[in-house]
Design brief:
Two copies of one chain form a homodimer.
Chain A lengths: L1 E10 L6 H9 L8 E15 L3 H16 L5 E9 L4
Antiparallel strand pairs in A: 1-2, 1-3
Chain lengths: 86, 86
């Protein structure tokens, strides 16, 4: 069965985010006020062939912890839906 | 009113994604089979102060088109919910 997976990788709270800080500092000069707390993370999408949703989730959690994130400074959020990514 | 905004920036279909290709090539050697079509994008989250949801969306669409994406090679998906990001 094919599952469409999204892993969002974000920096943990308290970890400095220079990319986000630069965006936040620039926007008021460019005419956009009222933007606060910009954080830049990664969004990794893929299709996964697995027997069922439980085994798909177990595999994705394992590979996310081991290869897609640095658990010291990053958190991850996994979403899995049946069917291929568009 | 405070809105919590997520902008997902993805490479357009057909644009080469070396980061995704490297992940996809590596995973089978690391014991994870069945992963296909890996694409790596950005997830940008921030809080936005705006009068209502319609004006929040208009502001976010404008700044996303102009500053957060390169429309030649990137697509964006915007989600806005009332309340601050966690």
């Amino acid at each position: 069965m094919l599952f469409s997976v999204q892993v969002e990788v974000t920096l943990r709270q308290g970890v400095a985010d220079p990319q986000g800080a630069t965006i936040e500092r620039s926007l008021p000069h460019l005419g956009f006020d009222g933007v606060k707390g910009v954080r830049v993370g990664k969004s990794i999408r893929f299709d996964l062939e697995a027997a069922d949703e439980a085994s798909a989730r177990a595999e994705v959690e394992d590979l996310t912890q081991r290869f897609l994130t640095n658990p010291v400074i990053e958190d991850s959020t996994i979403s899995i839906v049946a069917g291929a990514n568009a």
